[in-house]
Design goal:
Layout (H helix, E strand, L loop, with lengths): L1 H18 L3 H7 L3 H15 L4 H4 L14 H4 L3 E7 L7 E6 L4 E6 L5 H8 L3 E3 L8 E3 H24 L4 E7 L1 H15 L4 E6 L5 E2 H9 L5 E7 L16 E2 L4 E4 L12 E4 L40
Parallel strand pairs: 3-6, 6-7, 7-9, 9-11
Antiparallel strand pairs: 1-2, 2-3, 4-5, 8-10, 11-12
Helix pairs in contact: 6-7, 7-8
Bound molecules: 2-acetamido-2-deoxy-beta-D-glucopyranose (3 copies).
Length: 307
């Protein structure tokens, strides 16, 4: 596997020299192997939020079913708080002592109330976060349900573990909530990275611009996969400007294939059509592309979200 990747990279590089292509263009195609490993790690943090044992066991370590989260399972982790309610998001805050991380994770769609949150697609004004910004109402209500508790626990955790990097992660619905939660927490002074996997659009163009410009020293790692329809929704209707922040990391490898560095394309630009947004319409549901992000995202639960 590694050998063939190296051969392909070398082939691309030598082709580049012959046609004198810009090295910048070449650098944009593939991602570094260190970033691929972090994507894989955070996809596992997102996926295992759907395993019931992580939701019911505050104080325990993170585990997952079917051996689909080997990187996290090998670490020394502790769940600080696992949250679950009928009218709010499911997820957890955990420490990873091995890698010095604090992780706030939101689960994808499992319950009926999760499905209702997905479908609650009015644009809610959130001027207190940024002027002119509007957020996906369902995601906003979900974040609001846990905001004060999560914020105070993250305050405690970041002061108890000052060298630990904070990340907010989620797949699908969880990705939409993560984009909002991470954005708000940054305005409150937290340095953090946002990792989303197949997340729907979190809000309007002003919000996407705000998230995109909020990055240094933070980052948003927004992963999409081939034709996954979920990052494309809600679709734009006249007078609405639903948008995705930049950049995007577009996995171009097929479902089930182990993702390699040259199978992830770095795409810049809000609502760029160079990545998932410009890919073919794919209306299959359940959608296989939606549940494969650096690994199997549905081992513990099959997300049922339709929006
Ligand atoms: C465990 O968590 C799930 C949510 O994922 C919840 O539905 C279930 O009732 C919980 N089980 C127990 C025994 O607390
Ligand atoms: C896990 O890390 C914590 C905090 O550093 C430490 O107290 C604990 O002993 C570690 N556990 C294991 C099994 O290494
Ligand atoms: C993901 O895991 C589920 C549950 O084990 C399994 O049914 C499904 O086939 C897996 N998907 C892939 C693409 O391996």
């Amino acid at each position: 596997m590694a050998g063939s990747v190296i051969r392909r990279v070398l082939a691309v590089l030598s082709l580049g020299m012959i046609v004198n292509a810009s090295p910048v263009q070449l650098a944009r195609r593939a991602i570094a192997s260190e970033l691929l490993e972090r994507f894989t790690l955070f996809s596992q943090f997102a996926a295992l939020s759907a395993c019931d044992q992580n939701i019911n066991h505050t104080g325990q370590s993170l585990t997952c079913d079917y051996g689909t989260c080997p990187l996290v399972a090998a670490d020394n982790t502790t769940v600080i708080n696992a949250f679950h309610s009928d009218h709010g998001p499911t997820g957890y805050i955990a420490l990873d002592h091995t890698r010095k991380l604090i992780v706030l994770a939101f689960r994808g769609t499992v319950s009926k109330s999760d499905g209702n949150a997905d479908l609650d697609i009015t644009l809610a004004p959130i001027n207190e976060v940024c002027t002119g910004c509007r957020a996906h109402h369902g995601f906003w209500v979900y974040w609001s349900a846990v905001a004060s508790q999560a914020t105070s626990q993250l305050c405690d955790a970041t002061s108890a573990y000052p060298g630990y990097r904070l990340s907010v992660v989620g797949h699908s619905l969880g990705g939409g909530i993560s984009a909002l939660a991470g954005t708000v927490l940054r305005t409150q002074g937290f340095d953090l990275d946002i990792w989303t996997f197949g997340g729907p659009k979190p809000g309007n163009m002003k919000l996407a611009e705000f998230i995109t410009n909020q990055q240094t020293p933070n980052s948003i790692y927004r992963a999409t996969h081939t034709t996954d329809p979920i990052p494309k929704v809600p679709i734009n209707l006249p007078f609405l400007d639903w948008s995705q922040p930049s950049p995007e990391y577009w996995i171009t490898q097929e479902t089930g294939a182990q993702v390699t560095t040259d199978g992830v394309q770095y795409v810049e630009g809000i609502n760029s059509k160079e990545g998932n947004a410009g890919s073919d319409r794919d209306l299959r549901w359940p959608n296989p592309e939606h549940v494969w992000y650096f690994g199997n995202m549905s081992a513990c639960a099959t997300p049922i979200d339709a929006s």
